[in-house]
Design goal:
The chain is mostly helical. Helix content is 55%, strand content 0%.
Length: 359
């Protein structure tokens, strides 16, 4: 393999790098300062002359680009010049991109207080204020004033609905405001023990399909019927409320089941009441439900079931550190009554007096 390799002789070593530093003198820049032709080109526009543009089709003459200097030399067109920008147009003027030199902007147009939209907005604001005042009066104990404010809010809200229907479609009515006004009015009626008026107002909400969650207010209607001692209707509305309330609201459903059990006790349906309280004790054990369960078992004379109910009641945690020190009088009364019942020292005639109600 090495037989085809020939080493350079010492005489030829100087020729290996010959021409390495040779270059075309055209590209020599060391003597440009002394080059008269180059300096002349720099001082004139000749050095900035662009290449010739394309020829006009059909002719042999080249077309030059006109410039603003009138020297007849073709210049490239720039973006700012094409947009009409020149230094002459900016002479004697300040940089004012926002046009502030033209003076202040004209004043904003005043709102027309007599326009229908403005009247509706003001009326809606007044309705909200009346509802808020009604709630504050109720929390302060002035139930009569709270009811008067609720009635006035209801009147103005009806006027607001009519005005909206005149200038817009019925879909533009504020349903949330209507619901709030009706619910507050029904609550104030109930607080003033005007139960018939409260039930009628709740019926308006419940029967209106546009209020998607209105069916849950049947719990409030059931509470009113329970206060009126109309226990059969109370049970009916409590059961309808259970159909409207999702299972995720566990606490609310438990309270409704307890109220149903109380209504069953009032009507003497102890077997049905036992089912309600046993369901409550299995889902959320508490002292009141356990005590009522013991009462129902005592009423039907089932001693074995009564003992089991009493054991469930005793197993309910009191959530206190020391029973004797922190136990409430009601809890003490519950346990004392249960002991009397187990020993047979109390009669069934005291059953309704002992029943703990939920509202």
């Amino acid at each position: 393999m090495m037989q085809n390799v020939h080493l350079a002789t010492e005489a030829d070593e100087d020729d290996l790098y010959s021409g390495y530093n040779d270059y075309n003198p055209t590209f020599d820049t060391e003597n440009l300062e002394n080059d008269a032709a180059f300096q002349q080109a720099v001082r004139t526009s000749h050095g900035r002359r662009p290449p010739m543009t394309a020829k006009i089709p059909g002719t042999s003459a080249s077309r030059h680009v006109a410039t603003a200097f009138g020297d007849g030399v073709a210049r490239p067109m720039t973006a700012v010049h094409a947009a009409g920008y020149t230094k002459a147009s900016m002479r004697g003027s300040l940089f004012d991109p926002l046009g502030q030199a033209k003076g202040p902007a004209p004043p904003l147009e005043m709102k027309n207080q007599d326009s229908p939209e403005e009247k509706i907005r003001q009326l809606e604001k007044k309705v909200n204020e009346l509802v808020e005042e009604s709630c504050i009066a109720n929390s302060s104990g002035d139930l009569k004033l709270a009811l008067e404010k609720a009635k006035e809010a209801g009147r103005k809200e009806r006027v607001l609905v009519r005005q909206r229907e005149q200038i817009a479609t019925p879909e533009s009515i504020n349903l949330d405001l209507t619901y709030t006004v009706l619910f507050n009015l029904a609550s104030q009626y109930a607080a003033n023990e005007m139960y018939a008026e409260a039930l009628n107002t709740y019926q308006v909400i419940v029967k209106n399909k546009m209020f998607s969650n209105g069916g849950r207010l049947k719990v409030n209607m059931g509470n009113i019927y329970l206060k009126q001692r109309n226990y059969s209707k109370a049970i009916k509305f409590y059961r309808m409320a259970l159909d409207q309330i999702p299972s995720v609201h566990k606490e609310m459903r438990i309270k409704i089941m307890q109220n149903i059990g109380v209504a069953f006790i009032k009507t003497g349906q102890y077997i049905d009441a036992i089912s309600s309280f046993e369901h409550t004790m299995s889902m959320s054990p508490n002292l009141k439900a356990g005590f009522n369960l013991v009462l129902c078992c005592f009423a039907v004379g089932d001693s074995e079931q009564m003992k089991k109910a009493f054991q469930k009641l005793i197993a309910v945690p009191l959530e206190v550190d020391y029973d004797d020190k922190y136990i409430s009088p009601n809890v003490s009364l519950i346990k004392t009554n249960c002991i009397y019942m187990v020993n047979g020292e109390k009669g069934r005639e005291t059953l309704n007096a002992w029943t703990i109600q939920y509202m």
